[in-house]
Amino acid sequence: MKRLRDKFLKYITDKYKIWLIILISLSFTLKLCIIFYYGNNLNLASDDLNYIKSAIALARKGIFIFHEYNEPTVFVTPLYPFFLAAIFKIFGYGFIGLQIGRTIQAVLSLITIILVFMIAECIFDKKVALISSFLVSFYYPNIITPGYFLTENLFTPLLMLLIYLSLKFSMTPKTSQFMLLGLIWTLATLCRPTIALYPLLLLFHMLINKKYKVKGFVMSWIAMIFAFTFIMMPWWVRNYFEYKTFIPLAESSGNPLLQGTYIGYNQTPENIVYYKLGKNAFETNRIEVEVAKKRIKEDFENDFWRYLKWYTVDKTYLLWFTIFYWKEFGGITYSNILPCHFLILTGFLVIPGLLLKKFSTYFLPISVLFYFNAIHCVYMAFDRYAFPLLPLLSVFAAFFIFKLFSKLSLIWVCR
């Protein structure tokens, strides 16, 4: 009891933790103001409406659909629709249920802020951690997005938790810890399948640090893979039952792969490819994959350097240098957010130096940024897909800001 009391006293007297509590309190207040003032106006009339429709079908009839009511879906993975369905089952899917859902998502965004603080403290220090928390707390799209019913609201805290625990557990791997990592990785994959290859990054991180015994290392990875297989099994069985084939994640890559073949996403009568739709979304996806592969092969053969630029430089620009702020709220315009957004992007400026300074320490969080960049350059790249990565990039932006102000202060003192 005395130990718990001492820990509690240490926590509440830590000035950095006090400031963190203030930041998340102010951020939460702003989010609640937006949610209760704008209500159902917080919608994009896009995937968010499909997720609501999917969750209502789950809550009412126990069927998992996405685009069409009469067609079981493998277009999206099930975690986020099940998350919403649980809320709607308890609170209904009228205005009150939707508002409670938005409020819960606002709470999840606070967890993201705390996890960003912990990641930054783990790889830098508390000063950098506090700056990064400030950036995440008041970056305006982070204030607005909890009002949308999109996977980003659940995936972002899961991703931050996965990275933080990976940094903590990977130095001295234990079976129980990696079982937990496997659980979080699986949940993140069931929310956003692009994270599925994350263990490859973690494995390389552990190999370059080399602070483990071989037996413990092997047992830990067995535990992680077991957790993944155990949790994914019902999804695999359900998909096989519906479509008589093994579908490990989702069958939705066809459309983004095909859309990504059009430079600037511009489809004109001259460049558009027409194709016959399948009898269901599953078959259509398979057709779109084949059409996309054919387009990629032909386009690279016809204009190699132009398409190489599109699949590298141009898509990277679209991923990072535009903002997921598609509707304006509270009188805040897109241009108002640009300075803060570009401040977060300064995190990229310090990454080369950090990797040269201590590659093994910084590899894992940095590799996550470049991993997602590479994945989205293959498919579609736009600002919404970068949104879950901005809290992680804010950690490096905070380090840049801290170093910049430290040098400016030193210059000022020496004058």
Polypeptide structure, described:
By secondary structure, the protein is an all-alpha fold. The protein has 2 domains: 2-250 and 303-414, no CATH class; 251-302, no CATH class. Helices cover 73% and strands 0% of the residues. The longest helix has 32 residues, at 347-378. The chain is globular and about 70 Å long. The termini are far apart. The model has no long low-confidence stretch (mean pLDDT 91).
Quick tags:
mainly alpha; about 425 residues; 2 domains; about 75% helix
Provide the fold topology.
Blueprint: H1 2-12, H2 15-38, H3 47-61, H4 79-91, H5 95-123, H6 126-138, H7 140-144, H8 152-169, H9 175-191, H10 198-209, H11 214-243, H12 254-259, H13 281-302, H14 304-320, H15 334-345, H16 347-378, H17 383-386, H18 390-414
Question: How many E strands?
Answer: 0
Fraction of residues in H or I helices: over 70%
List the secondary-structure elements in sequence, H or E: HHHHHHHHHHHHHHHHHH
Biggest β-sheet description: none
Strand content: under 5%
